[in-house]
Design a protein that fits this description.
Blueprint lengths: L6 E5 L5 E5 H8 L12 E9 L9 E7 L7 E3 L2 E3 L4 H12 L4 E9 L9 H10 L5 E6 L4 E6 L4 E3 L4 E3 L1
Parallel strand pairs: 2-4, 7-8
Antiparallel strand pairs: 1-2, 1-11, 3-4, 3-7, 5-6, 8-9, 9-10
Length: 165
């Protein structure tokens, strides 16, 4: 029997909400590094930016999908470098299929630790690539996940997502 899709939700520092379908988190969790031989995985997060009449402001981030690792990507026990065109193609396909409403919303990757926290390399990459942009950041760990909102200059941890009942 199919279970109804449910959403996970978290309040953003800006006052809006991050909405994540449980089915998307299940998709990310299939890449958890539970075995010693597992390599880091990652990709981009895709979805809707919702605003309520204020130009240039985002009220809610609603995630709908993600890209997954491709054989062109560079993966190791302690690193992931996105190299495949498939990540950009996934964003562009969502953009076209949604009549230019779904777009890039952020980044996700795994860490080989129970309770992940961003590394210096993670923060450095975000500062370089996401400067001035709002984004969602997710690091999948072995027992818990680290989820944050990128303000344009820094990551603000959101804590755990709550089930929207």
């Amino acid at each position: 029997m199919l279970q109804p899709e449910t959403d996970l939700i978290s309040k953003l520092p800006s006052g809006g909400y991050l909405i994540v379908p449980t089915i998307l988190m299940d998709k990310l969790h299939k890449y958890q590094q539970l075995r010693f031989s597992d390599k880091e995985a990652g990709g981009v997060l895709i979805g809707y930016k919702r605003s309520h009449g204020i130009p240039g402001s985002v009220t809610h981030f609603e995630l709908t999908d993600c890209s997954e690792p491709d054989w062109f990507d560079k993966r190791s026990k302690f690193g992931f470098i996105r190299r495949s065109y498939s990540h950009l193609k996934k964003i562009m396909d969502a953009w076209v299929a949604s009549n230019e409403e779904q777009t890039y919303l952020g980044e996700w990757h795994t860490h080989p630790e129970p309770h992940p926290f961003p590394s210096r390399d993670d923060i450095s990459e975000w500062k370089k690539n996401l400067q001035g942009k709002e984004a969602v950041l997710i690091i999948i760990g072995q027992q818990s996940d680290w989820i944050a909102y990128w303000t344009g200059s820094e990551a603000v941890s959101l804590g755990s997502l709550q089930l929207d009942i």
